[in-house]
Amino acid sequence: MDETTRTELEAAAFRTLVKHLGERTDVQNIDLMNLAGFCRNCLAKWYLAAAEERGESLDYDQARETIYGMPYQDWKARYQKPL
After folding, report:
1. Contact at 8 Å (CB) between 59 and 49?
2. Residue 44, C-beta contacts closer than 8 angstroms, at least 6 positions apart
3. What angle do CA 81, 19, 34 make, to 5 degrees?
4. What is the number of domains present in the chain?
5. Which label site among 16, 44, 57, 67 has the fewest CB atoms less than 10 Å from its CB?
6. Closest CA to 21 of 7, 6, 9, 36
7. Within a 13 Å sphere around the CA of 53, how many CA atoms are in the beta-carbon half?
């Protein structure tokens, strides 16, 4: 498999994961951390790190909005359950 195809497949898998997490708002970040060792915030940090490695201008709030599909505070108010 050539590098371009591999990158396109990885990007498609990432988009599918983000979409899936967006549809599963019942799954809390703490549950993801406990079971998988990562959460939506981790994905946002990895996304931000990848952007910074490539010299792209992005901040953490923008990265989280990409992962959450809305501003984090909005997602938190709508979907985060009290501890």
Report:
1. no
2. 60, 63, 64, 66, 67, 68
3. 45
4. 1
5. 57
6. 36
7. 6
CA-wise closest residue to 69 among 7, 34, 17, 32:
17
CATH label of the domain that carries residue 16: 1.10.3340.10
**How wide is the angle at C-alpha 28 spanned by C-alphas 23 and 34, nearest 5°?**
125
CA dist., res. 73 & res. 4, Å (int): 36
State the virtual CA torsion across 26, 27, 28, 33 in degrees, nearest 10.
180
63, 48 contact by CB (below 8 A): yes
Mean pLDDT of the chain: 96
Provide the whole-model pTM. 0.90
Q: What are the pLDDT digits (tens) for 34-44?
A: 999 999 999 99
